[in-house]
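Why should sequence recovery work at all? Because a backbone constrains its sequence more than one might expect. Tight turns favour small or flexible residues, buried strands favour hydrophobic ones, and helices have their own preferences. The token representation captures these environments compactly. In the example below, the structure is given first.
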């Protein structure tokens, strides 16, 4: 969750939605205010590896979000994928990398 220059990890784990019809999921309730954004991403982003066999990790993702907190959500996604590309250059990635940002616009 991105609020101003602050980012908080709201971690939800389990079986991906839609794979099995009768799976029950935990519920996470969060109060959003206008200006808040939520970044949904697959673990391929945080599991991206570099030449030193290190992961990009959640901390790397949080740092990119912090550095580019004032950018549009489309620009933020570009910076995230650019940072991962730079971090993992010359390394074969083995997992998908998917992300989406949802932004709570103020009601006018």
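From this structural description, the recovered sequence reads:
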């Amino acid at each position: 969750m991105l609020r101003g220059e602050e980012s908080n990890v709201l971690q939800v784990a389990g079986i991906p939605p839609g794979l099995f019809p009768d799976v029950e999921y935990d519920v996470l309730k969060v109060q959003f205010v206008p200006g808040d954004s939520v970044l949904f991403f697959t673990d391929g982003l945080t599991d991206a590896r570099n030449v030193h066999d290190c992961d990009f990790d959640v901390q790397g993702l949080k740092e990119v979000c912090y550095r580019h907190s004032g950018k549009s959500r489309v620009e933020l996604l570009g910076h995230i994928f650019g940072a991962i590309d730079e971090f993992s250059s010359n390394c074969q990635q083995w997992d998908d990398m998917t992300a989406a940002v949802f932004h709570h616009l103020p009601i006018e």
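A few observations help interpret the result. Helices lie at 43-46, 57-67, 73-87.
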